[in-house]
Amino acid sequence: MSTFDLHAAARRAMLGAGFPIEFAPATLEQAQHPASVDDDGARDLRGLLWSSIDNPDSRDLDQVEVAEAQSDGSVRLMVGIADVDAFAPLGSPLDRAAAERTTTVYTGVENFPMLPRDLSEGATSLWDGQDRLAMVTELHVGPDGNVLESGIYRAWVRSRAKLSYDSVGAWLEGAPLVPEAIAATPGLAAQLRTQDAVSMHLRKVRLSAGALEFDTIEARPVLENGRVVDLAVTPRGHARYLIENFMVAANTAVSGFLQSHSFPSIQRIVRRPARWERIVELARPLGEALPAEPDAVALSGFLTRRKAADPDHFPDLCLSVVKLLGPGEYTVVPAGGDLGEHFGLAVYGYTHSTAPNRRYIDLVTQRLLKAACIDAPCPYSLDELTAIAAHCNERASAAQRVERILRKSAAAVLLHGRIGETFTAIVTGVKAQGTYVRLVAPPVEGRIMHGERGLDVGDRVHVRLTNVDPEQGFIDFERV
């Protein structure tokens, strides 16, 4: 068991799901020798105090931010997104490779990029100290957190620092040690405080509208010399919320911009939950009476109260609610059409535009934006956008399957010596093909093979580990 090769397993899972592992020679050639790009009309914003916040090991940096406080208490917030289209134009080998994959796949042991690393970690990555082209969404945010106006344009940017979620989050939450990259950049500490303040204002508005904030447990394998020694849980943290609030604001502004210019768009929709009645059932024993019909404001208030009342078990409740809400999907909206609702974010009109190095929908949206900005014709027909959305939906599901298999393969390696032990678990899925649970500790997912009758999502049960199969990513339990 200690010799099980997770990297080889990741590659098998990718190929099994229909994802290419290698890039074609023409694609690599284009990535390694990017052509000069047209920067006509691009503003010069390199003098602003841009910075990025991402995972410590991320190299495909899509986003930078800067905020300027105004004399009336409002804030001018700018979110810069890498201009990937400038180097991977529609119909090029790079575009065709991205269109086939549609997403970067994160397996926990190896990442499989949507675009070659020579490009996504090079010319289109918003590295600190480098001049980069970006699409900038500018938001004028009032003192109450409402967006008063917005605009979108192309610009040159230069990031001053690459920051990490954990260190910036801890500092914003009161840790005395200032991260080195912040201390080394004059004015950056005050800049980030301004960003944090406007982020909290944006968050307050979304929460009042019914936005749902979840504390879910995301575990990744910890490897030492190729062996799985633990599963590490990624904390949400203050800095992650900051970036999330900015992304929601920017993506919502992009939707409105395209609609105002009579352009179609691909919206990210999370519909009203079909299993709302089960969410109501989970709330009842906790002393909460949710309405009979789906209500985001009521659910948001319930989650906020439960987090305060029982923070230790709040992630378990979040997991159940997330499963019952159901997945999001990409839907094409024609010019002038109904943008639709994102139930979880409590926003009307929400697209994906902030990660064009990592998601194809974002690259497509970037092309729509660039055309709208200069009053050019739409670069896609509705039929083409519909086909892209359908393919991206299918590939997103495939990527999730790959990531789930690798999480379970790593967990199976970790648990192989614990056959027969009993664990506390939360039911996460009840389907025709089986009933699934996630252990409370360690946060491992598996299937109940015996005793699953009568269980439903959100039930807390005791299970015994009966079998593990790292090759297949199987972890089997029986109810006790």
TrEMBL record:
Residues 418-480 form the S1 motif domain. GO terms for molecular function: RNA binding; RNA nuclease activity. It holds the Pfam family RNB. GO terms for cellular component: cytosol. One of its GO terms (biological process) is mRNA catabolic process. Coiled coil: none annotated. Residues 42-375 form the RNB domain. InterPro entries: NA-bd_OB-fold, RNase_II/R, RNase_II_C_S1, RNR_Ribonuclease, S1_domain. This is Ribonuclease II. It comes from Capsulimonas corticalis.
